[in-house]
Amino acid sequence: MPSQHRSIRGPAASGRSTTTTLPALFLFLCALLAFAQLGAASPQPSRKNAGQGDNPLLTKPRATELGDKYLIGIGKADITGPVVEINMAGYASSDQVGTGLRQRLYSRAFIIGEVGNPQSRFIYLVLDTQSGDTAVRNGILEGVAALGSGYSMYGRSNIAVTGTHSHSGPGAWFNYLLPQITSLGFDKQSYQAIVDGAVLSVKRAHESLQEGYLDFGTTSISDANLNRSLFAYLANLASERAQYSDSVDKTLTLLRFQRAYDLKNIGVLTWFAVHPTSMLGNNTHISGDNKGVAAYLFEQAVKGDSRAADGFVAGFSQANVGDTTPNVLGAYCDDGSGQMCSLETSTCADGKSQSCHGRGPEFRKLDLGVSSCFEIGRRQFAGAKSLYDSLDSTSTAVVGSTIKSFHYFQDMQYYKFPLDNGTIVQTCPAALGYSFAAGTSDGPGAFDFTQGDSGAPNNPLWSVVSGLLKTPSAAQVACQAPKPVLLDVGEMSTPYAWSPNIIDVQTLRVGQFIIIVSPVEASTMAGRRWRNAVKAAASKLALAPAGVEPFVILGGPANTYAHYLVTPEEYAIQRYEGASTLYGPWQLPAFVNLTLRALPFLAPGATGAPAPGPTPPDNRKSSLSFITGVVVDGVPAGSSFGQVTAQPKASYVRGAVVNATFMGANPRNNLRLEGTYAAVEKKGADGSWTQVRSDADWSLVYTWTRTNFVLGYSSVTIGWETSADRGVVVGTYRIRYNGDSKPLIGSIKAFTGVTTEFTLV
């Protein structure tokens, strides 16, 4: 991605984000100083389909057998935070502030437990957010505990909080200072929406627990991802690269949840590595990006399917996403030359990165990435659905009654450990290199920073800023080498910690199925090495039943966001991902070491747990916020909230966009969780109206516009894109707007507005 933590943005080509967060950064830093009284390489076309050769961990498919019984439960709940006036999380652009909603965001909860042993369970959460986070995880743990004694078996060790890594959701909920900069701090409403929805999804999953079976399968999706840092990937040994058919993992893994009493499927959980950066950095409508599209399409597709139970939940989790991109046509210079960007530095003829942009499959439509996003989501859905349809004859049953998990914290500051050859190495306090500021072809950075930056840009501004904030110690410089340190975030704690030094180490196991819960965006090869090491160790420890191979998957970014993870060879290249690998060149071997040392706790007869480790800082109560609340909503004299100011036409041909505009109010007054701001209603033969579309649907777009700041006037436009609505039928319809207005004095009041009817032909 361009990380949420990258707070530098530069000008871009037409149709792209043209923002820079540098002024916002300086304003925010000035506020902090006063408060504290401080004195990508051009991606190359994908090679042939990866198939089984893409991942040596894959087991060969075999005819399905019902494996062991487990307790299984699924749940889904709305986590859509404020959709306007809050900076969006992902691109770290201060100008990318929400103006509306394309698709609601969700938490999807999956619980797996031992039959008859309520203490042996784990919860895997998939949130439509940029990542997991320490503040959010703490809130979820507290919320689940508050549900009562019936939930006492869930806690720190067995709840994994993962994000899909969407770049199109509201921000301002992070625990650490650095990602709060572009959002102007912490917003309680944004944070609470995620926490409350996640807890509700856990409650629903827990209440749905029943006996059932698990099985899994894999498939190859050849056209949904590409390596955006191929130059760094090529630094890995040729002999290692030769083990794989592609420079990114093309394999999608699907775990099916099937209830026992009628063998109906209640949900699926998938893992596939692709950045949700299909929606561009100048998009300002909230959505789940391509992962949200895939989940939406899958859940819609199984409605009415006799094999699927009501309330079916499809989770599309992230994998080793670090160097992947959904911009599968490659990265080109939008400078009129038509040339591909430099393989080594992701720059163009002027030597800068600003005009280097990745191209999605529908980039020519110039629609802020909407069409490309839907297409990449559709490709993930199509692969997953095809695999799902074949599982009865091709899947591998999960077997072995053991369900285990572990979690502990590790301080990465100068953590010493031995490599396989006995050499003692160490990790470092968190730091970001100069190429962090260069961004990627998914979202370029600013000024003359480039990927592979040596640390000496022509513009001396950031040398001054870097030194003003914190000059790294000699020990830190030596530890991080060859990374030139731009931001020494791990040694900055005023007014509170800027980035995490303490990470979560967590792994889950059911039978032979093992899930590494990663706090970072692992690069393709880093993820492969981590999985391979865990599989080899799991085999030696006999974690899987006799005669069954362990199957290892990696999911994240989870629990706390610790940026990136690359191989030592990729780190030496210092492209964006290497510069964003916080803890130095030995971070990957350290993460492997930390996982393997606790792996015996997953053995069938194991008791106890690893020492919990040092508790990371909880900044929820100390976080700054310069985000203003809603003051007042108003309408002109003689008007009313919800009044239609632009009616739809009387008739439309299917494929057209139906628009209606209303006198609006700020949607931050009421998030309408589990509800909707916008709705399409269809007229029945008896004259009654039935809601057929809502905020959950990709084709219905809600846009809020402030028209008079002083008097609080605003308008809402609801657009129904019938060309993107494959289920639309001829008929008579109308559009409904649900809002809530805030007076200067008094309580918030709900209202609604309804258009005249129109026909689709």
UniProtKB/TrEMBL annotation:
Binds 1 zinc ion per subunit. GO terms for cellular component: extracellular region; membrane. It catalyses: an N-acylsphing-4-enine + H2O = sphing-4-enine + a fatty acid. Keywords: Hydrolase, Lipid metabolism, Metal-binding, Signal, Sphingolipid metabolism, Zinc. One of its GO terms (biological process) is sphingosine biosynthetic process. Residues 1-41 form the signal peptide. Its cofactor is Zn(2+). GO terms for molecular function: metal ion binding; N-acylsphingosine amidohydrolase activity. Zn(2+) binds at residues 165, 275, 521, 564. Pfam families: Ceramidase_alk, Ceramidse_alk_C. Residues 597-760 form the Neutral/alkaline non-lysosomal ceramidase C-terminal domain. This is Neutral ceramidase. It comes from Lasiosphaeria hispida. The lineage of its organism: Eukaryota, Fungi, Dikarya, Ascomycota, Pezizomycotina.
